[in-house]
Amino acid sequence: MTRSIRLIADDYGLSPGVSDAILDLIGRGRLTGTSCMTGFPEWEQAAERIKPFVGRAAIGLHLTLTDQPALTAPSGLAPQGQLPSLGELASPLKRRRFGTIDIHTELDAQHRRFVEALGREPDSIDGHQHVHFLPVVRDWLKMRFAGSQRPMLRGAPVLSRGVGVTALKVATIAALARGFDRSMQAAGFSAMKPLAGIYDWRRPSDFAPTVRRAVEGLPEGGVFMCHPGHVDAILATRDPMQAVRRAEYDFLASEEFGTMLDAAGVSIQGGTR
């Protein structure tokens, strides 16, 4: 019996090279879909390129509140134009500097750019550096989609018994996501869970074993996040994850990955739900 899992590529729109790689993998049937960053100047062109895949792949919104330029700057959230670090935003003490209205206004702007460019609501929503788990973003989701069709949300990871960097990352993300699945499902959202795909991105060789564990262990409908991409000059100015994106693309496009799926009796879920 075939089991299907979701593979969602983050960061569509981050740079042309990242978008190229994601579109190629969607075309090969190696991704369920992608989530889009709408805050960059190239977004409208990127949106035009992904329109042919609407309905065939899940096209979501990747909420961005850290490290990148803000659409709504200058504001209390980004007085100099740059969004704060995750450490500042997630810290209970430091985030008091950021007003709820400023955060919600930025999220409104990103959502509006998605809808205006694609003419539809996102199929799913997640967050750059998992910011959708933050209480202020949970509140925005509930208000923005009250009384309307709700997108799927990326849910929380399951704590592992491992040790080292990966186990610490999983524990940190799980702590940020505490209560998220339960509270958002109570508000009428569906959560894609459990979340897999967390590893030490400083070690690109760890990606293939991480995929293998997910293919062998994720339950039906579980979600694996990934970050494939081709490195270009624009990416180099926006994000430190570079070589690892190429490694992820190479593996997901490979015959080895296809053989792995076949051997495990696993398919990649397509479509929007």
Automatic annotation (TrEMBL):
GO terms for molecular function: deacetylase activity; hydrolase activity; metal ion binding. The keyword Iron-sulfur does not apply. It comes from the Bacteria. Keywords: Carbohydrate metabolism, Hydrolase, Magnesium, Metal-binding. Its cofactor is Mg(2+). It holds the Pfam family YdjC. One of its GO terms (biological process) is carbohydrate metabolic process. The keyword Metal-binding applies. This is PTS cellobiose transporter. It comes from Mesorhizobium hungaricum.
